Amino acid sequence: MSRITLASGITFNEDYLLRGEGMLLKDHDPEDTSATQKPHRAPQEVEAIASGSRVIQRLPIIPIEAQAGIGKGFLYDVDPSQDPEDIYDEFDSMEVVLEREVSDRYKLFRVKGDSMTDGTLSSICTGDVLLCREVFPEDWKLGLTNNRYPNVVIVIEEEGILIKRLIKHSKKNETISLHSINPKYNDFTVDLKNVRAFYYVERIVDRHMSQW
Fold first, then answer.
1. pTM, whole model, 2 decimals?
2. Residues linked to residue 133 through DSSP beta bridges, in sequence order
3. Residue 140, class by beta-carbon neighbours within 10 Å (0-12 exposed, 13-18 middle, 19+ buried)?
């Protein structure tokens, strides 16, 4: 009796396929080593999660307010001896899904103001919660212009927390030029020596539909 063996190891009865005789499947002969053995599969519960997989992290929601000094103690000039949970107790918090490994680079900011609102889907409105990733000062000299993440949050001690679109970074002059998409606000330039913290806006994680 003839048989046909597939790469998967399944053996068919050739007589059944050609003439309709016998059984479709051929019983496996234990002495026949031509059939491919099924690979060993580890139990599902011990499968490792690949590095860089999505993770869920609870983050405080920091308000963007137009006032000097906001952010001192938790965005800059942080006391390393102080428990971060104590610092953020006064803020609301939210669980977010991160595409990168967990780190202290991520912060949530709640928007206030209309400087990034122009009536289009590009608008960032009052009440929106933004997921932002910090770029530490030692990396600023490498260049801050990022076409993928053009919107940024910067912290200036004298002015507070600002959200703008970064349109230019002059490495020579150590300045950044910022733009508001609302046309009633003018562009301006900031000296990086006055910037206490810098973040890329990665995405909006919460939006109040009443803004539209």
1. 0.71
2. 106, 200
3. middle
What is the C-alpha separation between 76 and 104, in angstroms, rounded?
Answer: 13
pLDDT at 2: 56
Q: Which amino acid is at 110?
A: R
CA 26 to each of CA 7, 37, 144: distance values in angstroms, whole numbers, following the listed order: 15, 16, 66
Averaged in consecutive runs of 10 residues, what is the pLDDT profile of the chain (212 residues)?
54 61 57 46 38 78 81 82 76 86 83 93 93 95 95 92 96 96 96 96 85 50
Tell me how crowded residue 78 is: count the other CB atoms within 10 A of its CB: 14
Q: Do 124 and 64 meet the contact criterion of CB atoms below 8 Å apart?
A: no
Phi, psi of 133 (to 5 degrees): -115, 125
What is the full DSSP assignment across the chain?
--EEE-TTS-EEEHHHHHH--S-SBPPPPTT---SPPPPP---GGGPPPPTT--EEEEEEEEE--SSTTTTBTTTBS--TTS-HHHHTTTS-EEEEEESS---TTEEEEE--SSTT--SSTT---TT-EEEEEE--GGGGGG----SS--EEEEEETTTEEEEEEEEEEETTTTEEEEE-SSTTS--EEEEGGGEEEEEEEEEEEE--GGG-
- Residue-level pLDDT at 17: 58
Please report the pLDDT score of residue 32 as a whole number. 52
